[in-house]
Design a protein that fits this description.
Layout: E1 2-3, E2 13-14, E3 33-42, H1 44-49, E4 67-74, E5 86-90, E6 99-102, E7 107-109, H2 116-119, H3 123-136, E8 144-147, H4 153-164, E9 168-173, H5 176-184, E10 189-192, H6 197-204, E11 209-214, H7 221-226, E12 228-236, H8 250-255, E13 258-261, H9 264-268, H10 272-287, E14 295-300, H11 304-312, E15 319-323
Parallel strand pairs: 8-9, 8-11, 9-10, 11-12, 12-13, 14-15
Antiparallel strand pairs: 1-2, 3-4, 3-6, 3-15, 4-5, 5-7
Helix pairs in contact: 3-4, 3-10
Bound molecules: NADP nicotinamide-adenine-dinucleotide phosphate (NAP).
């Protein structure tokens, strides 16, 4: 599925026939793992790409799709993977296809406990969750984490990783259906985005939360700051709510709190060792049963536009996935 024009999810993409990719990735020129795609993950950046609104703007036409679950067709020379291995792979582009190439350090052996659709929801959201909570948010055992958009891809990943790191969890959602998903993902408390969530979060956390992970932004940002305990951190992850909040920094002084940016992609792209280390930490959390990507709607590859429209209409829960035969 190729983006041929920047007209939004319904009309931007076309099904085309292209040659199979060579085993060379732009991050590792001359080297790469060719993966037969079984499932492709669908995320917010691809939605933005159909309108030319994402920070990374490849020339048209291009095949979007940043991550997949699949089987190695052609391994990278000198690497640890071999043809036939089941993997979760982050490819950056090209995932909405039957075959894609990914850098070796972005391919992770898929444990038997996870199917291909879950593999397609593993790298972007769970590595971001670990990076936001631990690397940037300095989460420690016993702290309380509040996450906005808690039934979404990032939100469900943050809930599972936070539980695995020994935190108490509060999820903020907008509907009953999303409340069910947030609870399934491990939220100890679920509060409504249009309710008195700031006061309720302060109460259930016993005086304030330690870490807020915010993929939504918009109007609720000031209340996120107000919900913090002393020493608390708001970790900025995204802006699905549309507007980019501004901070009156006197609030940080008064509460001895912090606002921290967490841009996973920008940080890890040039650091294969960090990618492997986060992959190992997420792997432990899979082995311990904490990480189980929640797959929501599934579409055939050729209906990628409908999958992106679901995200655009705020209708997605968990990870949206394209099934590729
Ligand atoms: N910083 C990083 O490294 C990084 C990495 C990955 C993703 N991201 C970003 O994180 C954000 C979330 O991604 P995701 O995959 O979790 O998306 P998602 O599955 O669509 O979830 C986003 C959630 O945002 C909430 N939301 C509030 N207002 C919304 C609106 N006007 N439109 C759509 N959703 C709205 C929705 O929850 P409610 O309806 O319950 O409010 C929704 O469940 C995106 O901006 C993405 O680009 C950042």
């Amino acid at each position: 599925m190729q983006i041929t024009e920047l007209t939004g999810p319904a009309s931007a993409m076309q099904l085309v026939d292209l040659p199979e990719p060579e085993s060379s990735h732009q991050f590792t020129p001359g080297r790469g793992v060719v993966v037969a795609v079984k499932a492709a993950g669908v995320s917010f950046p691809e939605l933005l790409q159909t309108r030319g609104e994402y920070q990374f703007k490849p020339p048209l036409p291009f095949v979007p799709g940043s991550e997949v679950g699949g089987v190695v067709k052609e391994a990278s020379e000198g690497g640890s993977l071999k043809a036939g291995d089941r993997v979760a792979a982050f490819c950056m582009l090209g995932g909405f296809a039957e075959a894609v190439v990914a850098p070796e350090h972005f391919c992770f052996t898929l444990p038997d406990a996870l199917d291909f659709a879950q593999g397609a929801g593993l790298v972007l959201n769970y590595h971001t969750a670990y990076f936001a909570l631990k690397t940037r948010g300095r989460l420690t055992q016993g702290e309380t984490v509040l996450v906005h958009g808690a039934a979404g891809g990032v939100g469900t990943a943050v809930l599972q990783v936070a539980k695995g790191l020994g935190a108490s969890t509060i999820g903020i959602v907008s509907s009953d259906a999303k409340e069910r998903i947030a609870r399934e993902a491990g939220a100890d408390h679920v509060l409504r985005a249009d309710g008195a969530w700031k006061d309720d979060a302060t109460e259930v956390s016993g005086g304030g939360v330690d870490v807020v992970v915010d993929p939504v932004g918009g109007d609720r940002f000031t209340d996120s700051l107000r919900s913090l305990a002393e020493g608390g951190r708001v970790v900025v992850v995204g802006f699905t709510g549309g507007s980019i909040p501004e901070v009156k920094v006197n609030r940080l002084l008064l509460g001895n709190t912090e606002v921290i940016g967490a841009g996973w992609g920008a940080y890890v792209m040039s650091k294969p060792d960090v990618v492997r280390q986060i992959g190992a930490e997420v792997g432990h959390l899979i082995d311990q049963g904490f990480v189980r990507p929640i797959v929501g709607a599934r579409f055939p590859l050729e209906d990628a536009g409908a999958a992106l429209q679901l995200i655009d209409e705020r209708g997605a829960v968990g990870k949206v996935v394209l099934d590729v035969s």
